Amino acid sequence: MSDLRDLYEEVILDHNRNPRNFLRKPAETNRHAHGYNPLCGDEFEVNISIKDDVIEDIAFEGAGCAISTASASLMTEALKGKSVKDAQKLFQGVHHLLTEADDGQDLGKLAVLSGVREYPMRIKCATLAWHIMQAALRNEQDTVTTE
Amino acid sequence: MTSVVEQKATEARSRQLDVERLRADFPVLHQSVHGRPLVYLDNAASVHKPQSVIDAVGKFYSHDYANVHRGVHALSERATDAYEAARDRVREFINAADRREIVFVRGTTEAINLVAGSFGRQRLTPGDEILITAMEHHANIVPWQLLCEQTGARLVVAPVDDHGDVIMAEFSRLLGARTRLVSVTHVSNALGSVVPVRQVIDLAHRHGARVLIDAAQSVPHMRVDVQALDCDLLAFSGHKMYGPTGIGVLYGKAELLRDMPPYQGGGEMIRQVSFERSIYADIPYKFEAGTQHIAGAVGLKAAIDYIASVGMDAIAHHEAQLLDYATSRLQAISGLRIVGTAKEKAGIISFVLDGVHAHDIGTIVDQQGVAVRVGHHCAMPIMKHFGVAATARAAFALYNTEADVDALVAAVEKVKEVFGHV
């Protein structure tokens, strides 16, 4: 039996209980997207303010399971102050972490998401906010879905 | 001479299922999941198959299989006999007046789509209304929305109260001169509510509306008698009643089915074809275009035989006991809320846990070997009514035990432990 603590890491539970950059909208939001996982009903909105190709502020709203909420919260923490290019790199890194056998690049705090790898049914929970962030950066209007 | 008391005690004992013996009939139950004995409580999604059903399908393919109603050779004759015997068995099971009122389809979803595509497209004109309830499965919502787009008819939704009971006064008020069809579930798959369909049918008939009953969740768990109900149409699936997937039934009153145009065209559903015109076969074959799931029908017959051998009343009694036990055990867990507390319920319990999303419950209880459904149960509108995006759902079948409920309760306690809510 895989240890449930690998999935429900203390950091994940903490970010689920007290999500960072949650339920507020950056004052100068100029990128926005909405996403939905039809399988479980998780639904988030990501708002970003970008200046000179740098993510000045990022926040999210919505509701989801512990994995999707914590992943969204950790994402906002990790992306603040990053260039758009670095944000894309981080997205690739998280995607690699969740879908490949090895951890790939050093992701710092985001490495806690590696436990999700053992639970294939939950990978979409962990990637939802990241896909929405990407859509926001591309300024896509359609709702992102994980299906 | 036995006293009345003794007689009642004997009756009660005879109604008790010997579940341990019955469990031996279900090979899939005897396995470990994540190192724990499997506790299968996802029966509203699909039910496991007894060996007799598995064997009936295997034996049919091994000895008697051929296409039906076509050949004059021995195997075709045997296959036709087996297929038609299944129709007779279904007729008897739901007490239809005539075997021709039994149409084989893929499942409940196809049956409802058949009614929408045939009855609906033939009879509905702009402004006509289809009345459903707020707790329908998507299969009893979306086909009507498609039909409304095609015909200009309107979908009207009768509200449900905070217990999960249809508000009958509202339902009654929404029935009108434009109501052509009432399509309601018998048992809500998301909440377990039993809808008073007899009353629904009477009210609808008084307004001249036809009634379709979605019996997917009732037929496996209680006696359903289409003549006593007087429903015009009724749909159910084989796989939720110990039978194979891909086979289901649409029951329709003969006079109504005769009036309905075919749903799909093809072989088997015709009497004569020329390029000028085709003459359709009689009911039920008019609705069975192409080669049907013949082995599925054979398996469905075996499933009905199995249910009959156990006894439907005994099954209903056993599941009601499990529901009572599970309700009281789950209610005792702090932070747990049961969603759906209708006056009359079938063996389905939906619940949410404070501060824990249903998806997380599903993953953690699965690690304890307990299979429940988590999500919106293909009934998003009713989830929204109760203000939840998703619930966890335990649903019982004849092979479940109080020990299964205990395992679920322990697994939910584990969820609280992982989330630090102890």
How would you portray this structure in words?
The complex is a heterodimer of chains A (147) and B (422). Chain A is α+β, with helices and mostly antiparallel strands and 147 residues long. Chain A has a single domain, classed as Alpha-Beta Complex (Sufe protein. Chain: A). Chain A is 39% helix and 20% strand. In chain A, strand 2 and strand 3 form a beta hairpin. The mean pLDDT of chain A is 92. By secondary structure, chain B is α/β, with parallel strands linked by helices. In chain B, 41% of the residues lie in helices and 16% in strands.
Biggest sheet overview of chain B:
7 strands, mixed
Helix/strand order of chain A, N-terminal first: HHEEEHHHE
Structural class of chain B: alpha/beta
In the sheet with the most strands of chain B, the strands line up as 4-10-9-8-7-5-6
How would you describe the oligomerization state of the chains in this entry?
A: heterodimer
| Helical residues, percent of chain B | 40-55%
Between the first and last Cα atoms of chain A, what is the distance in angstroms? 28 Å
**What's the N-to-C terminus distance of chain B?**
56 Å
Report Rg of chain B.
Answer: 22 Å
> Using DSSP, what is the number of strands of chain A?
4
Number of strands of chain B: 17
Per DSSP, what share of the residues of chain B sits in E-state strands of 2 or more residues? Answer: 15-25%
Rg of chain A (CA only): 14 Å
> What overall form of chain B do the CA principal axes indicate?
globular
Q: Report the major sheet of chain A.
A: 4 strands, mixed
Describe the structure concisely for a colleague.
The complex is a heterodimer of chains A (147) and B (422). With 147 residues, chain A is an alpha+beta fold.
Structural key phrases:
heterodimer; A: 147 residues; Sufe protein. Chain: A; four-stranded mixed sheet; globular; B: alpha/beta; Aspartate Aminotransferase, domain 1; Aspartate Aminotransferase, domain 2; 2 domains; seven-stranded mixed sheet; 17 strands
